Amino acid sequence: MKKTMLALSLLAAFAAHAATGPEFDAKRLSQDVKVLSSDEFEGRGPNTAGETKTVAYLIEQFKAAGLKPGGDVVKGQRSWTQDVPLGRFEIKGPVTLSVSDGKTVQPLKQGDDLSVRAAMNGSRLVDFKNAPLVFVGYGVNAPERKWDDFKGQDLKGKLAVVLINDPDFETGEGDFGGKAMTYYGRWTYKYEEMARRGALGTIIVHETAPASYGWNTVKNSNTNVMYDIVRKKPAEAHAPMEAWIQRDLAVDLFKRGGLDFEALKKQAQTRDFKPVELKNVTLSANYAVSAQVIVSKNVAARIVGASAPKETVIYSGHWDHLGVGLPDAKGDKIYNGAVDNGTGIAALLELARAYGKAPAPARSVVFLAVTAEEKGLLGSEYYSANPLYPLATTVGVINMDALSPHGLTRNFTISGSAKLDLLDELIAKAKQWNLVYKPDPKPEAGHFFRSDHFSFAKRGVPAISYGSGDDLVEGGVAAGKKLEDDYTTNNYHQPSDEWSASWTFASMTHDLGMLYALGRDLADSKVWPNWAQDAEFRAARDATAAQRK
């Protein structure tokens, strides 16, 4: 009954906005992306001159749109930003790596053979010699699935070699949801689990298909400056070494240790798998780490609700990218981040302009540009742990990350395969914009865990991350797939993710009308969307139900 009333209430609200929504300007979208991804903004790295320029630009645009500051309270007044204290970790000097098989010692190259992250466990120097390597399969400990890849293996003083994704990835069926990645498949889980077990380090074997991105993405994301939220006991979350290894090198090391990589990988897809040490194969490493605490900024702008100001709808996107890093083949070191996530922030600004011109809705609407997404969703994680507006009375979160700057599509998607009312409402709304929902085409890539909405979702807040469609009006699915594959292979997390004058932004201008109407209807209604009964985040939301009466 409640579901029916919710649907009727929202459909009535949808109808009110269907024909009279605001128009969105492709030229403004293009200009915002062009500015934010220009070399002048230096790749928008946190705690850089690029951050200072980005934050100033966002505040300027929010002010011009007529919004109010929505950030930290300073001297009794809201400011435009929320301070986000972060640990900053950077490798200083050379990274010396070598592997020995008992007969020969082979030097390894940072970024080409291994991609080693700056230590985030508090160490200022990572220095060990001849550490043994132990293959732990997918590195999963899931009691609820009666799955344990460790079987009592002691990892202290050892390097755990682990596969990316879930045991189900290769076969598409099993105890981990088939192709759809669970959190056990994410690299963040692998690092966390090995740290909990006291490993000296974690080395993830890179394979393009299960990782869902190529080695260049791994290299550029992990050899850069690293960040984390400030932790009381960082060693409980991070082992001294955290790294990825090229698949071919891993296969060779297994062979030198008398092991068959493919055979062991098949074993790792079963409950019976047991850890195996690579006999006589050891790794040595030496590199210094600079560690300090910095303060980055989330930017928050607000439309204060006319009758229910303490209830909040949030639009979000991350303003940061990778900053300045290793040069590409052309010598370009600036990771401009035009699509990722200049497009999402341009969308956020356009939505803010639309709300600024309209009468205030009943509930408040917050436009949240978060920092350090590229460092592990840290800006949204910090906000969710220290919310400016209570999560219990946050109606929902509509996140936008890496939208298409190209032509109109016939469909849309979201990151992951979550089941929640907010998606049902979006699907209903999409019909008025001639768009159909396409479930995440690559649930095995774990996109649900890779965007800022996840920080809210795991605390129970209904949250989605909107994704542009792949069925182009001009060219169909084939054209859409070509664009997506080209971006993933040639531009994602690379200096070449740059603004192009050829981009039409037709898809974004069209889809923003729908996202505006969805948020506006939520802000003008009294409904509280929830997760499906069997969703893993339902319990967290239900636990705060009394605060929404």
TrEMBL record:
<dbReference type="InterPro" id="IPR007484">
    <property type="entry name" value="Peptidase_M28"/>
</dbReference>
<feature type="signal peptide">
    <location>
        <begin position="1"/>
        <end position="18"/>
    </location>
</feature>
<feature type="domain" description="Peptidase M28">
    <location>
        <begin position="298"/>
        <end position="504"/>
    </location>
</feature>
<keyword id="KW-0732">Signal</keyword>
<dbReference type="Pfam" id="PF04389">
    <property type="entry name" value="Peptidase_M28"/>
</dbReference>
<protein>
    <submittedName>
        <fullName>M28 family peptidase</fullName>
    </submittedName>
</protein>
<dbReference type="InterPro" id="IPR045175">
    <property type="entry name" value="M28_fam"/>
</dbReference>
<dbReference type="GO" id="GO:0004177">
    <property type="term" value="F:aminopeptidase activity"/>
</dbReference>
<keyword id="KW-0479">Metal-binding</keyword>
<dbReference type="GO" id="GO:0046872">
    <property type="term" value="F:metal ion binding"/>
</dbReference>
<keyword id="KW-0031">Aminopeptidase</keyword>
<keyword id="KW-0645">Protease</keyword>
<dbReference type="GO" id="GO:0008235">
    <property type="term" value="F:metalloexopeptidase activity"/>
</dbReference>
<keyword id="KW-0862">Zinc</keyword>
<dbReference type="GO" id="GO:0006508">
    <property type="term" value="P:proteolysis"/>
</dbReference>
<keyword id="KW-0378">Hydrolase</keyword>
